[in-house]
Write a structure and sequence with these properties.
The protein is mostly helical. It folds into two domains: about 120 residues; about 140 residues, no CATH class. The termini are far apart. InterPro entries: CPA3_Na-H_Antiporter_D, ND/Mrp_TM. Keywords: Cell membrane, Membrane, Transmembrane, Transmembrane helix.
Length: about 260
């Protein structure tokens, strides 16, 4: 249950930040307290060494959205909690609109979702949400150079996610599923098929563009130099790192050595 609650807490608090705009700082602090409690419960749940898996909606695996936590996920949630706390402490006495805190909650909720996601399409949808939130955060102060940098980021990230989605379509066409565990099982007999190489290359390229991995980092300098210090910290500490996390998750189903070698 903690696996689903960590993202849901922030998606819920995002709505509350707009409804109760006068107490946004108290709300973000309360959400971090919830995070700390849930991360502690998650750590206790993983103490036996077995991953925690939940399929939302009561559907069977492969149909419903699967979220899973392991030791790697636990480490990431702790890092997200610490960085989120540091950013909130930095922003505590700054004058910010409730809109900013709504975006911050949406960003943290999206990051937690990516940490636990085990479904290629769920990863795509969450990356799209994270892209939109990052775009709005970079241009938060509405200065011309910030708007230009945020638009550049949105354009390139959307291009990357379009490439990723094409890879997802190929995977679904050949395997009939987007669950990473089931995809891995169905690729056992054909790990080096041409379509597998094509699909995995598209997935890697899309994630690389989204995450600013060299040589796909054209949007990075403008976004970091234009964003406020807190937003820049979120971009470098969380948003970009989520691409690396997604690549790591993809290795559970695909051999990415050749696509990474070809793409440099």
């Amino acid at each position: 249950m903690m696996v689903a609650l960590l993202p849901l807490v922030h998606f819920g608090f995002a709505a509350l930040s707009l409804a109760w705009g006068r107490v946004t700082r108290e709300l973000i602090l309360l959400s971090l307290v919830f995070d700390a409690v849930l991360v502690g419960l998650l750590s206790a749940g993983l103490s036996q060494g077995k991953p925690l898996v939940i399929v939302l909606g009561g559907w069977e695996k492969g149909i419903g959205i699967e979220l899973a936590a392991d030791r790697f996920s636990l480490g990431l949630t702790i890092l997200v909690l610490l960085l989120g706390g540091a950013v909130v402490a930095y922003l505590w006495h700054k004058r910010l609109r409730p809109y900013f805190f709504m975006l911050l909650h949406l960003l943290l909720g999206s990051v937690y979702t990516l940490v636990f996601a085990r479904d290629l399409f769920n990863i795509y949808v969450t990356l799209e949400l994270l892209t939109l939130v990052s775009f709005l955060l970079v241009g938060y102060e509405r200065k011309p150079y910030q708007i230009w940098a945020s638009l550049k980021y949105l354009l390139l990230a959307s291009l990357g996610l379009g490439i990723y989605l094409l890879g997802v379509a190929i995977i679904y066409y050949h395997t009939g599923t987007l669950n990473l565990g089931l995809v891995a099982a169905r690729l056992v007999d054909q790990p080096n098929a041409p379509w597998v190489l094509l699909a995995s290359s598209l997935l890697v390229t899309g994630v690389a563009v989204k995450s600013g991995i060299f040589i796909f980092s054209l949007w990075l300098p403008a976004a970091h130099s234009s964003a406020t210090p807190a937003v820049s910290a979120l971009l470098s500490g969380l948003v970009i790192k989520m691409g690396v996390v997604v690549l790591f998750r993809l290795t559970s189903a695909f051999s990415l050595s050749l696509p990474l070698l070809v793409l440099g």
